[in-house]
Write a structure and sequence with these properties.
The protein is built from four helices and no strands. By secondary structure, it is mainly α. The protein has a single domain, classed as Up-down Bundle (3 helical TM bundles of succinate and fumarate reductases). This is Succinate dehydrogenase hydrophobic membrane anchor protein.
């Protein structure tokens, strides 16, 4: 009985190959983004659950509106969103490369992961930076209580 070479899906990288080693870049990115994500996530949780009074019950529409009124917290959440989606997508790419052995299917799946991540990153960023809890011209009955009525 013989055991198949576990690296059969990956052709050996020749020493004379030109260009960047994308797998190495992905490996380094996963380590660096993981450390940064730990700081961002625990900072997010600390601020939302411990620093502000009321704990999880205090997280309401008004809380988010007040938090995103500060550009610091908008950028904190957007960077956390970007890194989380890119980190997770790179992890999915690795899983697909490890378990999908047909080249065509692998390309389709990786393309689907890239498209899904790109759409979610764009939508999340758009929502964060265009968020307005008190839009002009809205029905006053639908607005939160902290919005000034004219």
């Amino acid at each position: 009985m013989t055991i198949d070479n576990p690296n059969y899906a990956y052709p050996a990288r020749s020493s004379n190959r030109k260009g960047p080693n994308l797998d190495k870049i992905g490996w380094v990115f996963m380590r660096a983004s993981g450390v940064v994500l730990i700081v961002l996530i625990f900072g997010h949780l600390f601020y939302n659950l411990i620093w502000t009074e009321g704990g999880i019950q205090a997280i309401t529409f008004g809380f988010v509106a007040g938090k995103w009124a500060d550009p610091f917290w908008m950028w904190w959440d957007v960077i956390m969103l970007w890194l989380a989606f890119i980190h997770g997508s790179n992890g999915m790419r690795t899983v697909i490369n490890d378990y999908v052995h047909k080249e065509g299917i692998r390309k389709v799946l990786i393309g689907a992961v890239v498209v899904a991540a790109a759409v979610l990153i764009i939508l999340g960023t758009l929502i964060t930076f265009t968020f307005d809890p008190c839009p002009a011209g809205a029905d006053p009955e639908l607005l939160p209580s902290f919005c000034a009525t004219l």
